[in-house]
Design brief:
This protein has 287 residues and is mostly beta strands. It has one domain: Jelly Rolls (Sandwich), CATH 2.60.120. The chain is 6% helix and 55% strand. It has helices at 109-114, 268-279, and strands at residues 5-10, 12-16, 20-26, 37-48, 55-61, 64-72, 74-79, 84-88, 92-96, 101-107, 116-126, 137-141, 148-151, 156-162, 164-165, 168-169, 178-185, 189-194, 199-207, 209-212, 217-220, 223-227, 233-238, 243-251, 258-260, 263-265. Strand 7 (74-79) and strand 8 (84-88) form a beta hairpin. It is globular. The protein starts with a strand and ends in an 8-residue tail after the last helix.
Length: 287
């Protein structure tokens, strides 16, 4: 028995950075977060002419973990704790902001020179209260180090970005118990993903169309699907000739959340302290 779909929601269309179009599942009016997930953005696709790309300049963060999963284009990450990497198409990064850091994600010189399509996903995951002040940490995972499970004669590929699936385990170390999978279909087909009923589950349509027979509903590109917690699995039936679907699951923390721009804490006092830490240089400097 699989979970039922509780809701299929359109995402908010907005812009960030240097005019990058963003499809945002949350936070949006009426949905601040989906514990333990704090933010879900699908940025792009945007086609830059040569010399047109910039990226996101230096800014602070604290109190959560963030994943950037590049679908196309490339950016360079730098942070005040020494993290540095070029994130290319298919790569991902996991950044533990913890007690606070400053980082930038700028288009590489090569990408700026030649131009091209920039597209990816950014997701924020809350840190448990006991880990809010953890030492910042950066993990870069090139695409060839992301485990891939091949099913149905290679017609379905499951990229294990975070967590485990079948006998594959991501190398990403997290503080919150979460899993993130990219299910890629090259033909119409179906699969069941095991998710403990103790965890919330969502699926985002990067590309393609999903059909849910129990609800007699379909979900298409740019929509987020929310599932109930009545069983330990979710069924995905892709009816497109090709499709890519991001499955997110995680155990709720059930802790108070205070947030202000780039800062996340458990109380308003925690937010004030984060602002002071940033102003007093305790989050480091970006060289």
């Amino acid at each position: 028995m699989s979970r039922r779909v509780s809701e299929i929601k359109d995402c908010l269309k907005t812009f960030e950075g240097d005019g990058i179009p963003v499809t945002r599942a949350f936070p949006i009016p009426g949905l601040r977060e989906v514990d333990p997930f704090l933010l879900f953005d699908h940025f792009g696709p945007i086609n830059y002419t040569p010399g047109g790309a910039t990226g996101v300049p230096a800014h602070p963060h604290c109190g959560f973990e963030a994943i950037t999963y590049m679908l196309s284009g490339e950016v360079e990450h730098k942070d005040s704790w020494g993290g540095k990497a070029t994130i290319r198409a298919g790569d991902m990064q996991w950044m533990t902001t913890g007690s606070g850091l400053i980082h930038s994600e700028l288009a590489t010189e090569g990408f700026k020179k030649k131009g091209g399509v920039m597209q990816g996903l950014q997701i924020w995951i809350n840190l448990p209260q006991k880990n809010k002040k953890a030492k910042p940490r950066y993990q870069h995972i090139p695409k060839d180090q992301i485990p891939v499970i091949k099913l149905e004669n290679d017609r379905i590929l499951i990229k294990v970005l975070v967590g485990t699936f079948m006998d594959a385990k991501s190398t990403v170390q997290t503080y919150s118990p979460v899993s993130i999978l990219d299910a890629q279909f090259s033909t119409p087909g179906g699969i069941t993903i095991d998710v403990s009923k103790e965890q919330i589950a969502m699926a985002y349509v990067i590309d393609g169309e999903l059909q849910f027979a129990k609800n007699n509903e379909t979900a298409s590109k740019g929509q987020m699907i929310y599932f109930d917690q009545e069983s330990d699995g979710i069924d995905l039936a892709s009816v497109s000739s090709s499709g890519s679907y991001l499955i997110l699951s995680g155990k709720t923390l059930n802790e108070p959340i205070a947030r202000h721009g780039p800062f996340v804490a458990n109380t308003e006092e925690g937010i004030r302290q984060a602002m002071l830490d940033y102003q007093n240089g305790k989050m480091g400097r970006l060289e």
